[in-house]
Amino acid sequence: MYAASREASSRSREALRAALTGSDGAAAATGSELFAVVAVLDDQRSLRVALADVSVPGSARAELSERVFGSKVSAATQAVLTTAVAQDWSRASDLVDTLVLLGQEALLESAAVSGRLNAVEDELFRLGRIIADSPELEQALSDRGKPTEARRELLSRLLAGKTENITQTLADQVVTRQQTGIGTAFDALSDLAAARREQIVAHVRAAIALTSHQRERLAGSLQRIYGKPVTVHVEVDPGLLSGLVVRVGDDVIDGSATGRLERLRRSLT
């Protein structure tokens, strides 16, 4: 995002926090309603452009959003939307992307309030791994040649009775909008959930499954390095032969046998 959109996004997030403060039970509804607004904007380009048109006063754009959505969403959602469309956005897509993020954050707030944030975070990570490990499934979920409802039905069958309702709502929105990198999108959501808990995420590939004690030791070591609590997500990759590969943001710590062999090969050449 350019500077204008970053500032607009920051103010919109402040509006979300204000709208949800003291509003018990409003977070889930606000998240779902923001996703519904995004669906309308994705479908109606002229409205999307009009709500982000900086040549029109922000108050006029806010009034337009109230006319279109005011009777369809809650007061909390409309307060967030009014603030968002009144900002100056560099691109209309930045407004829509921010509304997506606000919807995600509202739903994660709902999970936190109900004590289910850890479960949602873990489910999003595991779903991302399942999709990343199955190119056929990722293709089926992102195939724009198939009707949206068909892709949503496939996801529903995959998750039926296995996840939190909030996980289902977040996943459904990803599949509806995302055209590529669906597995990566779920990883990003998992990271967002960890950030909500003021933790950072370590994505770990291990040659064999780690015990609970090994996970705790690894999390403790990474916390000492990064100075913040660390959530450890582990996937088993026998191709590593032995050891671990740990990724935290852009940092990669490769202590696997294959990594050591690759470094040795490079030194010899």
Automatic annotation (TrEMBL):
UniProt keywords (A-Z) are:
ATP synthesis, Cell membrane, CF(1), Hydrogen ion transport, Ion transport, Membrane, Transport
InterPro entries documented for this protein? ATP_synth_OSCP/delta_N_sf, ATPase_OSCP/dsu
Q: Does the keyword Protease apply?
A: no
State the GO CC annotations: plasma membrane; proton-transporting ATP synthase complex
- Its main subcellular localisation, reduced to a broad class, is membrane
Membrane-topology descriptor: Peripheral membrane protein
GO molecular function, a single term: proton-transporting ATP synthase activity, rotational mechanism
* Localization of this protein: Cell membrane; Membrane
Q: Which domain of life is it from?
A: Bacteria
Record-linked HAMAP family: ATP_synth_delta_bact
Function (record text): This protein is part of the stalk that links CF(0) to CF(1). It either transmits conformational changes from CF(0) to CF(1) or is implicated in proton conduction.
The Swiss-Prot or TrEMBL record describes its family as follows: Belongs to the ATPase delta chain family.
- Its protein name is ATP synthase subunit delta
Ranked from the top, the taxonomy reads: Bacteria, Bacillati, Actinomycetota, Actinomycetes, Mycobacteriales
This protein's encoding gene: atpH
